[in-house]
Every structure is written in structure tokens, then in C-alpha cells.
Amino acid sequence: MSKAVAATQGASRADDLGFDVERVREDFPILRLKVNDKPLVFLDNAASSQMPQQVIDRYVKYRTSEHANIHRGVHYLSEVATREYEAVRGKVRGLLNAREEREIVYTSGTTESINLVAHGYGRKFIGAGDEIILSVLEHHSNIVPWQMLAEEKGARIRVVPCDDAGELLVEEYRKLFSPRTRFVGLTHVSNALGTVNPVKEMVAIAHAHGVPVLLDGAQAAPHLGVDVQDLDCDFYAFSGHKMCGPTGVGILYGKAEHLQAMQPFKGGGDMILSVTFEKTVYADIPHKFEAGTPPIAEVIGLGAAIDYLQAIGLGAIKAHEDELLRYATDRVGAIEGVRLIGTAGHKAAVLSFEVEGVHPHDVGTLLNEDAVAVRTGHHCAQPVMQRFGVPATARASFAFYNTLQEVDVLVDAIRKVQKVFAG
Amino acid sequence: MSAANQLYQEVILDHNRKPRNWGKLDDASRHAEGLNPLCGDHIWVYLKLNDKRIEGISFEGQSCAICKASASMMTHAVKGKSIDEALTLGQEFRDMSTGKLDPQSGDHHLGRLTVFAGVRDLPTRVKCAILPWHTLHSAIHSIEQVSTEGEADPVPGAGLERTDHA
Ligand SMILES: Cc1ncc(COP(=O)(O)O)c(C=O)c1O
Questions:
Q1: Is A162 one of the catalytic residues?
Q2: Where are the alpha helices (H) located in A122-185, listed in sequence order?
Q3: Which residues of B are less than 8 Å from A361 in CB distance?
Q4: pLDDT per residue over A49-70, tens digit each?
Q5: Nearest to B129 by CA among B19, B1, B45, B12
Q6: Tally of structural domains, chain A
Q7: Domain that includes residue A231, residue range
Q8: Tens of pLDDT along A3-48?
Q9: What's the rounded Cα separation, in Å, for the pair A195 and A187?
Q10: Could you identify which of A394, B6, B70, B71 might form a hypothetical disulfide with B118, taking C-beta atoms 3.0 to 4.6 angstroms apart as the criterion?
């Protein structure tokens, strides 16, 4: 009996919730792929996840029978496309438990969502001498837009540190607030380490100082149930392609009062009420942020991805991923000469690790020999790498369609890397 | 044998474990820094030139095995050579790594450096092998910092694509 099978003896929580990983895997055609004549073991889901047939089919259906530009025609196809496109706002609202659909803005991804806030909110409300608080765990996309703004305005960035486990130091965070603090940007889940940050508590602390908070949910939306009203965050950003949807589409949730106060980011068609050369009146939210023809098929694909995830159940997904993380942490952590980086008490299914004496990139290339796909590098989170004193890590990131047996393949493949380098 | 297995063979692993010409060169007349953001490779190459000849060369830094071994073998290969010979060798090495030069052809001066021929089948690793040669090129031309990305890339169009994404 394999270790994985032994580990799953007795029903798990995911089983109780009716989750059957083998059945789920059948939905993902790409998981049947062979790489180097071996079955693909795809453990790079934090970078981008795979698409189930249901989402692919929805996309194809749109392309074959529903496409026209939206909000512009009175003809049949334009009405169908507009209806299907706008319906996704309701699905996203439901996913996030936002109060209103108009608080949901379509973007091209997390990166654009954050840039939209930095421009639309930041440029208007942040000035010289003001302070922006970010955490050391941020992805570059929640650092660079704020740096650009700070440089332009003469504002200052202050950084929340973390401990050796990769947990943010909330007491240090409290101390960073000053009368000049104007904005807080925090990642909900660290893409490099998997840490789930105590964002609800951190939002409350910021609000006690009257400061709004943006949460980067790129790694959280696919794995945790997110309730923006419960979190009480002011903005929430995520990407479609990390949650079984297409690339090129993402979401910015913003409280209506903030979105209304913000200036548009892009000017163009579809974001206006009326245009004369004397004066342009912007459309209402969310449309004032959605200039130009959007990625219609991608938005509709994102809607199908949300339907798909909800049909499986976010609770079941989380239970299975928790089990994968526990098993992978135990097994990879037990390999002599392997160091886990990021050992927070509360984590999403991300395992960053170092193989002693072997550069992560060499680890990645050799794991690929066994068809194991992991991400190697700095994960667009160089401050995290600096904090842990490593140039890069290898990172296995799991999705609900991964299996415990795949963890076994990973472990064997890491052992093989060690053998090659032992010489 | 697969491309990766061909590459991670004894010569390269040995140079990775025991890099030759490692460390700072005290009387260096030039140096340059090389960066490969994808890998996090970060190396420095030190040069002592004398009458258009590489009299001394060393390197240090933090890098993957392919980059470190490539740097180690590069220092070994160019020491004592003229600048022109070193630059020619660098060009041949880049051509081999990007598949433009067939190492079997015999029409080159690569010698033992042909152990890196396999990187041409590992497109994401080509930069690792080439970085030391980029850096040497810059040191010779006294460009302080090079990267395998963007404008500082001294071999534009060498098929080095940016694949840095989370
Ligand atoms: C935490 C986090 N934030 C932001 C991003 C950027 O997402 P995107 O590239 O889809 O805009 C990513 C992933 O790349 C991420 O992991």
C-alpha cells in the first residue's frame, strides 16, 4: 500500500462533503497529458490553474453562437452577449458576498485591479508626505503601483514585517500607523509562502485609524470562501486564471462609496454618459472604469468557472486542499536536506522549499524530468526572498484536482534530485 | 538520455561543487555584474587585462549549477587568451546554446565547453548558461551591470525570452 493510500484510510473531511478527486480530474483534459512519457503532475497552480471542460465549453459556445460587442447594439447577438456578460457580475457578487453588483468592476486581472485603485483612488487622495502601508509578503503587483504613486506624489511606503514562519507581525503593523497614513495594501494569501494573513483583524485596525484597505485576493479567491462584507475590506482584487477561468480577466471589488469618489483610470467608449468637446460626463459605477471593448468571452468564461467551483463546493475544495497541504508538509518536510520556507499556522496549499546545496532552478529542471511542474524563482515577491535570505525557492502549489499520490511523485522526484547532486 | 540528464553530468556537477577561479581578483582592472531575474542568478566577473590579453579572471556570486559551472569553465577557457579570442569564443558559446552552431561541426573553438550543448533543448535554462559570457562581454567593454533582460542584453534576438511570471 502506498503512503498516500495509507494516509487517506478512513473518510476525510473532503469525502464527507462528497468530494471525489478522481471524478473531478476527469473534468480537466490537460491532466491527461504526458510529459517526458510520464503523467503530468501539475503543481504550479498558484501561477495559473487549469481549466475544466465546462469552462472550455462555455467559452466555445460564446464564440460559436453568442458573440457581438456589448452595450452597443439593439440586435439579437448584442443583446445575448450583453446579458451573458452582465450576468457574471451577479455571480461575482455572490462569490464575494458583495452588497451590490455595481461594486464589481471587470479588469484584466489582479495587476490591473490594483493599478486602477492606485490611480483612481491613490492619485486623488494620497499626497506629499502621506504614508502607504504594505506588507513584506506582497507580490510585486501590490508593491510597484504604490511605489510609482509614492514617487510621483512624494509619499512614503511603510512595510509590515513577518516572523521566521512567514506570519505578519500584527503588533508591528499597529505601530506603523501615523496621522499621515492614507492607505493599506495587504495580500490575503502570500503567493510565495502560502500564509493566510489575519486580514479581518488588520482591516479593523486600519479602520480604527480611518484608513481604507485593499486586499490582494489573487491567491485567496480560488481557495477560501471570501466574504467582503465580513472582512469589511474597501477593495478586493483577484484574477480569473488562478481559479480555473481564462487569462485576461480579473475583478476589482470596491465599496460603492469609494468607487464613486474615484476618478476613472482609462478614458474611452463605454465609460461615458455623454461627450462633447466642452465636457464629458462619466457613466455610473462600475462602467466608468470599463472603457473600451472588454474581454467579453473571458468574462463569460470566468462566470462559468465560478459556477464550476461552486458546484463542487468551496468547502469541499478547501477540505481537500488542506489535506494535500498537511500530507505534503509532512512528507516533503521529512526529507533530510530539505527546508520548508513558510511554516505559518494558517496556510493555503503552497509549499515553498529549498533543497540543500541545489539551486531551485536546477531542482525545477530535474523535477520536470519526472513530469512534475513546480515554479522556481522569486515568485514576483523579492522582498520575501530577501526576508528569508534566499535568492529563490522551489514552490509546489496545489489545486483541488491534485492527489496525495502526486505528492508521493514529488517526494520521489526530490530524492532523485538529491541523488544527482550527491554525485 | 533526456536533455536535462545530459546536462547534469559529472563535468558540470563537478564545476558546480568546486568552481575554478572563484572569488574576487584583487588586482582586477575591470569587473561587471550579471543578473538573471528569472533564476535569481547573480554573478560578478573580475578581469585583469594586460595588452589586450586576459591575464587574470575570476568570478563569484550566487547562481544555479548551470550558471556556476558555465562561469567556472569560462574562466578556465579564456584565461591567457586575447580579448578577440575570448569574444569569439563567447559568440560561439551563445550560438551553440541557442542552437545556431552545431557543436559536432568542428568549426569552432569550444572544446570542453560543448558539454553545455544540451541547454539548447531547455529554453528556460539557456540564459543561465549564457549569463557568465554576457558578463564577461560587459566587463571587457566596461559596462557595469548587465541583465539577461531588456535593453542591456548584449545579444538581442538570441531567443532569450522573458518568462518571469508568478
Ligand atoms: C498574490 C498575487 N497578487 C497578484 C498577482 C498578479 O496576478 P495577475 O498576474 O493575474 O495580474 C499574483 C499572481 O501572479 C499573485 O499571486
A1: no
A2: 123-125, 144-153, 170-176
A3: 38-41, 64, 66, 125, 128
A4: 999 999 999 999 999 999 999 9
A5: B12
A6: 2
A7: 58-310
A8: 555 555 455 788 888 899 999 999 999 999 999 999 999 999 999 9
A9: 9
A10: B6
Name which residue sits closest to atom 15 of ligand 1, judged by CA. A218
Instruction: Give the residue numbers spanning the domain of B73.
Output: 3-147
The answer, yes or no, to whether ipTM is higher than 0.85 is no
Give the total residue count for chain B. Answer: 166
Instruction: Give every CB contact of residue B51 below 8 A, 6+ residues apart in sequence.
Output: none
Q: What is the DSSP letter of A105?
A: E
Q: Using pLDDT thresholds of 50, 70 and 90, give the confidence band for residue B154.
A: very low
pLDDT of residue B164: 33
Predicted pLDDT at B160: 37
DSSP B2: -
Task: Indicate the residue among A247, A276, A310 that finishes a domain.
Answer: A310
Check which CATH number belongs to the domain holding A347 and give it: 3.90.1150.10
Mutual orientation of helices A314-333 and A296-312 as an angle, nearest 10°? Answer: 80
Query: Does ligand 1 have an atom closer than 6 angstroms to the CB of A322?
Result: no
pTM of the model as a whole: 0.91
Find the chain B residues whose C-beta atoms sit closer than 8 A to any C-beta of A.
Answer: 2, 4-5, 7-8, 10, 13-14, 17, 37-42, 62-66, 122, 124-125, 128, 164-166
| Edge-first strand listing for the sheet containing B53-62 | B53-62, B41-50, B30-36, B145-147
Q: Are A100 and A256 in contact (CB under 8 A)?
A: yes
DSSP string, A225-269: ---HHHHT-SEEEEEGGGTTS-TT-EEEEE-HHHHHHSPPSS-ST
Indicate the residue among A310, A337, A359 that finishes a domain: A310
Whole-number pLDDT of residue A14:
87
Residue type, position B36, single letter: N
Query: Which runs of E-coded beta strand occur in chain B?
Result: 30-36, 41-50, 53-62, 145-147
CB atoms within 10 A of CB A43: 27
Calpha distance A392→A99 (Å, rounded)? 40
